[in-house]
């Protein structure tokens, strides 16, 4: 299960995620993110992964697309930080390569 809380405050749109970013919940996050597309042009997007307990391959892929489109990924914990760093490094290689 994944809980998605979207809030706008201090000029920033935050998607706070809690639970597992896996299976059908990846699509749910993508739908929420895409439905906020017009607002994203006004506010920068931040994805808070602090309360995420698991991220599958599809979840990583979605986070990569979100990052590529300008979202800031924020994580705590060794595993989530490692996943976010991997996404950022992968995107940097695309830009350089």
Describe this protein with a few key phrases.
97 residues, alpha/beta, Transcription Regulator spoIIAA, 4-stranded mixed sheet, 4 helices, 4 strands, globular
Q: Per DSSP, what share of the residues sits in E-state strands of 2 or more residues?
A: 25-35%
Number of structural domains = 1
Helix content: 40-55%
CATH architecture: 2-Layer Sandwich
Q: Mind describing the biggest β-sheet?
A: 4 strands, mixed
Radius of gyration: 13 Å
**Runs with pLDDT <50, length 5+?**
none
Give the CATH topology: Transcription Regulator spoIIAA
Describe the 3D structure.
The protein is α/β, with parallel strands linked by helices and 97 residues long. It has a single domain, classed as Transcription Regulator spoIIAA (2-Layer Sandwich). Helix content is 48%, strand content 33%. The protein has four helices and four strands. It has a four-stranded mixed sheet with strand order 1-2-3-4, with helices on one face. α3 packs across α4.
């Amino acid at each position: 299960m994944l809980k998605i809380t979207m809030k706008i405050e201090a000029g920033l749109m935050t998607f706070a995620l809690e639970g597992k970013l896996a299976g059908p919940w990846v699509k749910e996050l993508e739908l929420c993110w895409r439905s906020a597309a017009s607002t994203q042009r006004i506010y920068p997007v931040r994805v808070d992964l602090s309360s995420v307990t698991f991220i599958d391959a599809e979840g990583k892929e979605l986070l990569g697309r979100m990052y590529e489109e300008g979202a800031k990924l924020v994580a705590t914990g060794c595993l989530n930080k490692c996943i976010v760093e991997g996404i950022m490094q992968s995107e940097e290689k695309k830009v350089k390569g």
